[in-house]
């Protein structure tokens, strides 16, 4: 009964629209949950073990935590992955949280109890008390999302002129990127300088053949893995790749 009165007395301003919408939002839980609504809720909470209100804080804090331990993990992730795989007998990509605590201590990740709780809460993807170690490692090792930088920070790798529209992040893509990560981490600075002469028009894009040639010069040979990488970096099949976006991931 409050909705018609609110509609008749309200003007066309934005606050009035909000006043009409609020009762509808508050009345949603009274309706029975349909299968479509359950599917929607599942897709929203699949990456988060708790509700959106209680889980938003750990995710924000986890970004700071992951940045804190990123350099350490970038150099020791293969050892961490090996131990995780040994404990993951069923090959599910997850281990008990207690096992991750032992691994974090063994590899000196230097995490406080609160930071451990936030990390394990974020990567308990199935809400079953287990830690998704593969998702954790690829998040800490690869920087696939654009990084914010302060005005006073020196730009190490230029952002491309045209923002990239990335393709799907498949398991094959992550496997290919992780395999070459140690080599790229060792030689990305000279590789960046080698890429530039091939980019005569200064667009930040290289033809696939030139991109592959530069990698070959640094003893990085891609076979079928090249297609997995291009599936992400060349979603539109333009036969070109943004070498800055590629290097930024490492």
TrEMBL record:
Chain spans, region Disordered: 1-51
Biased composition range(s): Low complexity: 1-17
Domain named EF-hand: residues: 221-250
Lineage top rank: taxon: Eukaryota
SUPFAM superfamilies: EF-hand
MF term (GO), any: calcium ion binding
InterPro entries attached to this UniProt entry: EF-hand-dom_pair, EF_hand_dom, EFCB6
Signal sequence annotation: none
Bias type Polar residues, positions: 24-42
GO cellular component: nucleoplasm
Protein name per Swiss-Prot or TrEMBL: EFCB6 protein
Provenance organism: Ciconia maguari
Gene field: Efcab6
């Amino acid at each position: 009964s409050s909705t018609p009165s609110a509609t008749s007395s309200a003007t066309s301003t934005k606050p009035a629209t909000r006043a009409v919408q609020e009762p509808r939002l508050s009345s949603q839980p009274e309706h029975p949950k349909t299968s479509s609504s359950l599917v929607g809720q599942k897709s929203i909470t699949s990456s988060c073990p708790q509700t959106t209100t209680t889980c938003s804080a750990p995710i924000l804090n986890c970004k700071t935590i992951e940045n804190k331990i990123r350099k350490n993990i970038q150099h020791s992730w293969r050892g961490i992955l090996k131990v995780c795989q040994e404990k993951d007998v069923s090959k599910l990509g997850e281990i008990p949280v207690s096992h991750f605590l032992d691994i974090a201590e063994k590899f000196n990740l230097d995490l406080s109890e609160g930071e451990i709780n936030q990390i394990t809460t974020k990567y308990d993807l199935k809400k079953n008390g287990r830690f998704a170690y593969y998702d954790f490692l690829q998040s800490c090792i690869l920087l696939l999302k654009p990084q914010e930088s302060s005005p006073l920070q020196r730009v190490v790798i230029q952002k491309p002129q045209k923002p990239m529209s990335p393709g799907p992040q498949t398991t094959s893509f992550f496997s290919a990127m992780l395999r070459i990560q140690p080599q790229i981490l060792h030689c990305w600075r000279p590789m960046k300088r080698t890429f530039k002469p091939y980019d005569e028009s200064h667009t930040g894009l290289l033809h696939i053949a030139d991109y592959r040639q530069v990698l070959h010069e640094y003893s990085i040979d891609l076979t079928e893995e090249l297609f997995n990488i291009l599936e992400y970096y060349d979603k539109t099949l333009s036969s070109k790749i943004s070498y800055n976006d590629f290097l930024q991931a490492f």
